[in-house]
């Protein structure tokens, strides 16, 4: 049987048409699988009517919503390629993604008019976008050049569209910040997403009728993959448009949520909010988390609530799955990210590419393999060749593994900072700071933060004749970076340490500025 992810929705609508597929908590909108499939068909046919064809890229600048879900499945059915865009990015960052992907249609929320308007006017360069589809969110004053989402879809047929892609054809391109300062588009296929779903279902405790709280942004693979998985498994996706911890507890209690994902920082915040005591969350069976190890004390706190914690390691490039630390192993293997998930292979290699045996104390680079790995980086053969070698995905993460195969992350070759679950790459921040008139050169490192896990610290050598302040540097970064990337800490220094060849010595900076951050 050939694979098309959009057809999974059509099949699920046949099997259990009246089961609840999607719940939008804030707006109390509810859709069965039959209704969701009908809406996806309308969107698919509307895109076809406007000239979107197999292989064309359709970008989404949407908050979590049924519109996001139906657009994803519509695009999958007709063989176009979804490009989920991080709506936290500034217009210049969004423009690069649209340009690099050659996006032909953009579906966006009216919340992001401030980004869409300058993109359409060409303020950030010429785009290939021909169709601008705007979803009204209680606002007014829609531009004449944008199609109204509801009218756009309502005018189209509800019949199943012709299927335009199968198996190894492209399904979506998800952009992840790169160490060179430019984001790279990880390309995933229909078959790759299928194997991602099979891997997650067969490793974790998924059950018929589960209700998964989708509170993390759907532009992340950590939310897009579960959204797709729920259709495959017949579960219900309970959507929160934006993350609000108080509302999250009310949502869990009202909708009898059984599963959700959260980064460790969010797990800490949840325990501190008063709504925890005011709402019945006994329906929650387990929580998946990642980005950082979960302390034993936090595991015990959730055990007391009757909730198990599964700790995962994965990547955008692996379509989510990598390793998983099951609840029963968490205390004995604290600090580990677990063993490889079903349908996933790993190995750890030294600098010469030799496999390091399990049980060795030697650290090496973690390599991941499986049919759910990305196909390539879009339009970037150099980065693809560096990352995909001999059938393995080179993660850039330095790890050890014990005699039982449990993996522990030691360091990151790529210097990535994980702050509140968001991946932040210092090179991107350094490139922005380097363009600031007040900056001669800059280096960014991560320091420990009780609140965020890590937070960026910018070490800046002032340009001659200037007197930058932390406030002026932060203001410059805010104008040129998404909010979550902006360094909150700045240190003015006379020089940055370098070796004789001029390479920046970040280990010395980490020793000199070990943290922790004051928040």
Low-confidence region ranges: none
The average pLDDT is 92
The CATH architecture of the domain at 5-198 comes to: 3-Layer(aba) Sandwich
Report helical residue fraction. 25-40%
Note the total helix count. 16
End-to-end separation: 53 Å
Proportion of strand residues: 25-35%
CATH class of the domain at 5-198: Alpha Beta
User: What gross morphology would you assign?
Assistant: globular
CATH superfamily of the domain at 5-198: ANL, N-terminal domain
Query: In terms of structural class, how would the helical and strand content be classed?
Result: alpha/beta
Look up the CATH topology of the domain at 5-198.
Answer: Rossmann fold
Within the largest sheet, what's the order of strands?
2-1-11-10-12-13-14-15-16
Number of extended strands: 27
Biggest sheet features: 9 strands, mixed
Radius of gyration: 23 Å
Textual characterization of the structure:
There is one protein chain. Among the domains are: 5-198, Rossmann fold (3-Layer(aba) Sandwich), CATH 3.40.50.12780; 417-512, GMP Synthetase, Chain A, domain 3 (2-Layer Sandwich), CATH 3.30.300.30. It is globular, with a radius of gyration of 23 Å. The chain is of the alpha/beta class. The relative contact order is 0.09. Helix 2 (33-49) packs across helix 3 (66-78). Strand 13, helix 12 and strand 14 (308-313) form a beta-alpha-beta unit. The strands form 6 sheets. The protein has a 9-stranded mixed β-sheet, sandwiched between helices. Strands 4-3-5-6-7 form a 5-stranded parallel β-sheet, with helices on both faces. Strands 17, 18, 20, 21 and 22 form a 5-stranded antiparallel β-sheet that branches.
């Amino acid at each position: 049987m050939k694979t098309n992810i959009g057809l999974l929705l059509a099949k699920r609508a046949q099997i259990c048409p009246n089961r609840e597929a999607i719940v939008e908590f804030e707006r109390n909108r509810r859709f069965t699988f039959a209704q969701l499939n009908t809406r996806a068909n309308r969107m698919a046919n509307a895109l076809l009517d406007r000239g979107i064809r197999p292989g064309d890229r359709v970008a989404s600048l949407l908050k979590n919503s049924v519109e996001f879900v139906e657009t994803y499945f519509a695009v999958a059915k007709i063989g176009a390629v979804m490009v989920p865009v991080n709506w936290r990015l500034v217009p210049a960052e969004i423009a690069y993604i649209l340009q690099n992907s050659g996006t032909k249609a953009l579906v966006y929320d009216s919340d992001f008019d401030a980004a869409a308007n300058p993109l359409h006017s060409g303020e950030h360069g010429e785009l290939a976008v021909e169709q601008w589809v705007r979803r009204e969110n209680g606002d007014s004053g829609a531009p004449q050049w944008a199609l109204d989402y509801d009218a756009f879809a309502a005018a189209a047929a509800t019949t199943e569209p012709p299927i335009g892609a199968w198996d190894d054809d492209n399904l979506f391109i998800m952009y992840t910040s790169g160490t060179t300062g430019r984001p790279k588009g990880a390309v995933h296929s229909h078959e790759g997403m299928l194997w991602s779903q099979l891997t997650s279902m067969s490793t974790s405790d998924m059950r018929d009728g589960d209700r998964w709280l989708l509170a993390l942004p759907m532009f992340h693979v950590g939310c897009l993959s579960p959204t797709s998985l729920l259709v495959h498994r017949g579960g219900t996706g309970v959507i929160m448009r934006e993350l609000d911890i108080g509302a999250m507890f009310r949502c869990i209690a009202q909708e009898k949520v059984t599963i959700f994902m959260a980064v460790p920082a969010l797990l800490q915040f949840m325990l501190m909010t008063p709504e925890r005591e005011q709402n019945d969350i006994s329906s929650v069976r387990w929580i998946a988390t990642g980005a950082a190890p979960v302390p034993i004390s936090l595991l015990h706190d959730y055990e007391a609530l009757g909730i198990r914690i599964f700790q995962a390691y994965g990547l955008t490039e692996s379509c989510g799955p990598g390793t998983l630390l099951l609840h029963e192993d968490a205390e004995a293997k604290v600090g580990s990210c677990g063993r490889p998930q079903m349908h996933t292979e790993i190995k750890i290699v030294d600098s010469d590419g030799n496999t390091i045996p399990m049980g060795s104390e030697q650290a090496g680079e973690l390599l991941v393999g499986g049919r759910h790995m990305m196909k390539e980086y879009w339009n970037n053969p150099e980065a693809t060749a560096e990352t995909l070698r001999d059938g393995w995905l080179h993660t850039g993460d330095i790890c050890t593994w014990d005699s039982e195969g449990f993996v522990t992350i030691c360091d990151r070759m790529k210097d990535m900072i994980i702050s509140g679950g968001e991946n932040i790459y210092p090179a991107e921040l350094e490139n922005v700071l380097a363009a600031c008139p007040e900056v001669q050169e800059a280096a960014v490192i991560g320091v420990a933060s009780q609140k965020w896990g890590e937070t960026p610290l910018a070490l800046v050598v002032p340009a001659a004749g200037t007197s930058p302040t932390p406030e002026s540097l932060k203001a410059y970064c805010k104008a040129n970076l998404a909010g979550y990337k902006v360094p909150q800490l700045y240190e003015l220094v006379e020089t940055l340490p370098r070796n004789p060849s001029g390479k920046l010595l970040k280990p010395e900076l980490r020793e000199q500025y070990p943290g922790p951050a004051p928040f």
